Amino acid sequence: MAAKKPTKTPRVKSPAPKSKAGGGFLKAAKWCLIIMIWLALGLGVVTAWYAWDLPDIARLETPERRPAVTLTAADGSVFARFGDYHGGSVAFRDLPPHLVQAVVATEDRRFFSHGGFDPWAVARAMVANIRAGTIRQGGSTL
Q: How far apart are CA 11 and CA 23, in angstroms?
């Protein structure tokens, strides 16, 4: 008997490899879009989280004032007042001179001699702040 010839199986051509010339850009664009969507969602969640605790705007428009307590002496003169005082502005000329002198003595005793800007106080504050490594003093005046 004659031996059979082995049959050859036809070769299947594999597909040509894809060119990566434009594929890298599309892949990067896709990932950028995905990241931007997640960032937008995260920002929306954070905004909603903080907006949940915000007070009602109507409550912000009407200020809540504490009651004022006024203590009077037997003769009717006021000697103490506590709480929010709901009064108007007072002009400088209407202030008692002793009040002006007390504020100036407490805040800046040389206020009237330097005209509102004290270079010595600014220099002193700068040196103290540099030595401390943080802001400890200010050189501003009234």
A: 29
Structure tokens at 62: 């009407």
Q: What's CA 117's distance to the chain center, in Å?
A: 30
103, 142 contact by CB (below 8 A):
yes
pLDDT at 20 over 60: no
pLDDT in tens, 116-127: 788 888 899 999
Q: pTM score, two decimals?
A: 0.33
110 and 79 within one domain: no
DSSP code at position 83: S
Q: How far apart are the first and last CA of the chain?
A: 124
- Is 36 within a domain? yes
Helix (H, G, I), strand (E, B) or coil at 82: strand
Residues whose CB is less than 8 angstroms from the CB of residue 128 and which lie 6 or more positions away in sequence, other chains included: 136, 137
Range of the domain at 117: 92-142
Answer whether 116's CB lies under 8 Å from 104's CB. no
